[in-house]
Specification:
The chain has 234 residues and is mostly helical. It contains nine helices and eight strands. The protein has three domains: 1-41; 46-137, no CATH class; 141-233, no CATH class. 50% of the residues lie in helices and 9% in strands.
Length: 234
């Protein structure tokens, strides 16, 4: 009788210990699994081209070129030669820069390839390299799209569009003295009463639209002015 009672107690105690151990393992294991899931979660990666628009809207990837003779590519190549230390192992990447050499095809291709690399954030080394060596300034005309279309500089087309823009400019600039209008047209005092759009105004639209769109991270004032005075509905 005593033997049976002791055996029952031993089994009961063992069962409780096992049950407790399993419960403990379940809790700890769950924590480990949950922790693994949490710590194992990867940060979403994005192509550098996409991240540039979010983090550095003041810059644009230079368009692909078959010759590398464009001013933007010449400047990019000069910058790479000056500051890059030939990090991409480009042939000719250790020569002395003169600013007039065309960018080699191998350099342009490397820019295109690296711009598609997916990275976590703008601190990534490849992102910084693409930003430094493969981009140009974002221009005002780059941002005009959708329902608006930039009027063609000094063109006989868009007569109605130009007339409307000229009227809008005149209505906002009521001081007719020379140099007192917003864009200081060189013939403002003579042309402000004319309905015909002067070439000076068309030229100014062209010049302003080709200017930088950003000052650091903020849009410049001329962006809204070009949008108001140099565009028409598309």
């Amino acid at each position: 009788m005593v033997y049976r009672t002791c055996l029952t107690m031993a089994i009961s105690t063992t069962t409780k210990l096992v049950t407790g151990s399993l419960a403990s393992c379940s809790v700890v294991g769950g924590g480990v699994l949950a922790g693994s899931k949490y710590f194992g979660k990867e940060t979403e990666k994005k192509p550098i081209t996409t991240l540039l628009k979010e983090k550095n809207p003041e810059k644009r990837l230079i368009a692909h070129s078959s010759t590398g003779s464009e001013v933007e590519w010449k400047e990019a190549w000069k910058s790479y030669l000056t500051n890059g230390g030939n990090v991409w192992s480009i042939e000719g990447g250790t020569k002395q820069p003169n600013g007039t050499d065309n960018a080699p095809t191998s350099f342009i291709q490397k820019c295109m390839e690296n711009s598609e690399v997916k990275v976590e954030n703008e601190q990534d080394t490849t992102y910084s390299q693409v930003l430094s060596y493969c981009t140009r300034d974002t221009l005002i005309k780059d941002l005009i799209s959708g329902t608006k279309r930039l009027l063609v500089n000094s063109s006989d087309q868009d007569t109605e569009g130009w007339s409307a823009s000229w009227s809008a400019y005149k209505s906002k600039n009521t001081d007719h003295q020379e140099g007192k209008d917003k864009w200081a047209l060189d013939d403002w005092s003579q042309k402000h009463n004319e309905s015909n759009v002067p070439d000076s105004f068309k030229q100014k639209c062209g010049d302003k639209s080709s200017g930088k769109a950003y000052s650091q991270k903020s849009l410049v004032e001329d962006y809204s002015l070009v949008l108001e005075w140099c565009t028409t509905n598309s």
